[in-house]
Write a structure and sequence with these properties.
Length: 623
């Protein structure tokens, strides 16, 4: 209040000296040698308190009180129930030197303090006066805590009352909301407090635990929960009969698990069956069906089908509290549009995904960081480096929680490339190392292959470039196709350093294997690589003929980096094409490229070109 009145006087809104508190001496501020604890150390302390000790819940409550109030060591033990002012969210603290102060606290902390005081007070009174009523007290306390969403304490009191079924019901009633709001660890922690025999008999709880564990990437726990759910499903169908709703949901969950493992499972019949049961299944399940269908379509290169799945799922996304499902849907639709070089549509989906994530889950949420990584990848292609780097750096903080592989590719591969472009090779290497660790730990070969390709680009690695017999790619399996294409690109770029003729032959074969009508973006990148190989081989005219349509298309859709990242040899071909165009020597069949776009390509600082494409940051001998 002193500051408010002082500001009013300084602004001419009040009479100088009119504030009565000026006539009261301020209490002397006691000396302190306390210092702030760094955030990472504070996190370690809180984690230790919540997971160890004789009473983790009370320890966590005391820590929360100290964090919010900065009270001294004696502040918490001196608290009494009547020191809590619930209406104004104030707590009376007694501290050093017999001082007392009313300290504001959050409503959440107040609720927990009241719950602790209420439970402890009644327990002591009843144990002393009416021990036969203790179980009833625990029932009443459990109901009150449950109604105030203090589920952990409510479960403890239900168990103390000898009512494990009520404890299971408390978790089951709130499980779906916890999953939708992304509180996955909270749900699994609550479930761990339940008696396994009682929890196993509740199929809805088990299927929800399976959802939590699939998002947490815990396959063993997923399979256990699904087995228990199906075993206790009273509506399960007889052999040869249509699946029950719960069995269908379990089958869909396997599809989600496969998507996170970056594998295409034949889930067509499952997602189509979900489409036929829109009245019976929850919006959460229907949203998952939409995303599984879109994921499979994306990696069959059926990009129009991805958009159809996104549009089908749109009405159900509105009924799900979490932004995670709708964010994934927009990202999948954006990736499909990007692969078709429909840049306006792709940008719309990526921007919408990020906006929804930030609005619903928060600026620094996992959902927002995942969506930001995809937009960052898109911005990088357009050479908007500052925004791209910021978005990709935010995504890199997720580690093993970084979502499906399509999002991880942006985070680690594009994230590393932008570090190299900005001249920070050490950061690029660190990002690639982390990406390789994630790929190895989670067994994600598509991510691992792309990481190797980026290392080869930077001259940090070379691969065996010899042809070898490999099993044929299963029909319409875009994931295995992408792995093979990354491996081939790595081999071509390795050959390019010492055997450009072999590199050119293989790059031409790679280009021929890609249908430009079906996969225009992949064909554009393969064309750039092939032109680079021809130019490195010394066939400049052939390189220019091969490259001719690309700059005009890149100018039309507004992307720059794919050309720049092929390095100075290809830029030399672009410079020659510009000179021919300006001096009237351009072949009539070659498309005209806007002068401004050519200037943007050719006016880049040399440092941004020297370490990309075939250029090396450190010399490596060819094979």
């Amino acid at each position: 209040m002193r500051y408010v009145y002082r500001y009013a006087e300084d602004s001419g809104w009040g009479r100088p000296g009119g504030y009565p508190a000026r006539r009261i001496a301020k209490p002397a501020r006691q000396p302190s040698h306390r210092y702030a604890i760094p955030p990472n150390r504070l996190t370690e302390i809180c984690t230790a308190a919540a997971t160890s000790g004789d009473d983790p819940e009370l320890d966590s409550l005391v820590l929360r009180l100290h964090i919010e109030t900065a009270c001294r060591r004696g502040g918490a033990p001196a608290l009494r129930p009547h020191d809590l002012d619930e209406d104004q969210c104030l707590v009376l603290l007694r501290e050093k030197g017999q001082t007392e102060r009313w300290q504001p606290i959050s409503p959440t902390l107040m609720r927990h303090l009241l719950a602790h005081a209420f439970a402890e007070f009644l327990r002591q009174r009843l144990e002393r006066d009416h021990p036969e009523q203790v179980a009833e007290l625990h029932h009443i306390t459990s109901d009150w805590l449950g109604s105030h969403q203090m589920l952990s304490e409510a479960i403890d009191h239900a168990m103390a009352a000898g009512d494990p079924e009520r404890a299971v019901e408390l978790v089951e009633e709130n499980a779906r909301d916890l999953v939708e709001h992304g509180q996955l660890a909270t749900l699994t922690g609550l479930a761990a407090k339940l008696p396994p025999r009682h929890a196993a008999a509740h199929p809805l709880l088990q299927i929800t635990l399976a959802w939590a564990n699939v998002l947490l990437r815990r396959p063993a726990e997923v399979h256990t929960a699904l087995r228990l759910a199906i075993a206790s499903d009273t509506a399960k169908s007889a052999a040869g009969q249509p699946m029950s709703d719960l069995e269908l949901e379990a089958a869909l969950l396997h599809g989600v698990e496969f998507a996170f493992a970056d594998r295409i499972d034949d889930r067509d019949s499952v997602v189509e069956e979900c489409r036929s049961r829109t009245d019976a299944l929850t919006p959460w399940v229907l949203c998952a069906a939409s995303n599984v269908g879109a994921f499979v379509a994306l990696h069959r290169f059926d990009f129009d089908r991805v958009r159809e799945w996104h549009e089908w799922g749109a009405p159900y996304f509105r009924h799900v509290a979490s932004a995670l499902s709708i964010m994934y849907s927009h990202c999948l639709a954006g990736i499909a549009a990007h692969e078709q070089l429909d840049m306006d549509r792709a940008e719309h989906h990526f921007q919408t995904a990020l906006q929804l994530a930030r609005t619903t889950a928060g600026e620094n949420s996992q959902t927002a960081r995942l969506a930001g990584a995809m937009l960052g990848d898109f911005r990088y292609e357009r050479n908007e480096l500052e925004e791209a780097e910021l978005l990709l750096d935010n995504g890199a903080q997720l580690g093993f929680e970084g979502g499906p592989v399509d999002l991880l590719l942006a985070t680690y591969a594009t994230g590393a490339r932008i570090k190299a472009v900005r001249g920070d090779l050490a950061a690029a290497v660190a990002r690639l190392t982390e990406g390789a660790r994630v790929a190895g730990t989670l067994a994600l070969p598509r991510l691992a292959a792309r990481i190797v390709t980026e290392r080869v680009r930077l001259g940090l690695e070379q691969v065996t470039a010899a042809d070898r017999q490999r099993a044929p790619i299963p029909e319409n399996n875009g994931i295995i196709t992408a792995i093979r294409e990354s491996e081939e690109e790595s081999a071509i770029r390795t050959l390019l350093r010492g055997h450009p003729d072999l590199a050119a032959a293989r790059s031409a074969a790679l280009l021929r294997s890609i249908d430009p009508g079906r996969r225009p973006r992949a064909a554009l990148y393969a064309t750039l690589l092939n032109a680079n190989c021809l130019a490195t081989q010394g066939h400049t005219d052939d390189a220019a003929d091969e490259l001719a349509p690309v700059p005009a298309r890149c100018a039309h859709i507004g992307i720059v980096r794919p050309v720049l990242d092929e390095g100075p040899t290809l830029i030399g071909v672009i410079r020659r094409m510009r000179n021919d165009q300006e001096q009237g020597r351009q072949r009539p069949a070659r498309p005209h490229v806007p002068r401004a776009f050519l200037a943007e390509l050719l006016d880049q600082p040399a440092g941004e070109l020297q370490n990309h494409g075939t250029g090396l940051t450190s010399p490596i001998e060819g094979p």
